[in-house]
Write a structure and sequence with these properties.
This protein has helices at residues 2-35, 67-72, and strands at 41-43, 50-52, 57-59, 62-64. It is of the alpha+beta class. A two-stranded antiparallel ribbon has the order 1-2. The protein has a two-stranded antiparallel ribbon with strand order 3-4. It is rod-shaped. It binds zinc ion (ZN). Zinc ion is lined by residues 44, 46-47, 49, 64-66, 69.
């Protein structure tokens, strides 16, 4: 009788650990997904570097990586 009780307790504990691990994994992966949400990228019209839109300096001619490149304006394409 005690043998069955031990088996039941072991099954319960293993099941509880598996459920706990899975729910923690799910919350971590959903948090990770939120943190890795794709950010809009833009390309500097002067030097061509790619940067997140929220870091870019934008004007009517386009987006730039820095204020200096915005003042310099779009690079004239040589090719
Ligand atoms: Zn630039």
């Amino acid at each position: 009788m005690l043998k069955y009780l031990v088996v039941i307790v072991v099954v319960f504990v293993v099941g509880w650990l598996l459920l706990r691990g899975r729910s923690r994994e799910a919350s971590v992966s959903s948090r990770k997904a939120a943190g890795n949400a794709p950010k809009a990228m833009v390309q500097c019209s002067h030097c061509g570097v790619h940067l997140p839109r929220h870091d870019a300096v934008e004007d009517s001619r386009g987006a730039y990586c820095t204020e200096a490149h915005r003042l310099a304006g779009p690079r004239k394409s040589a090719d």
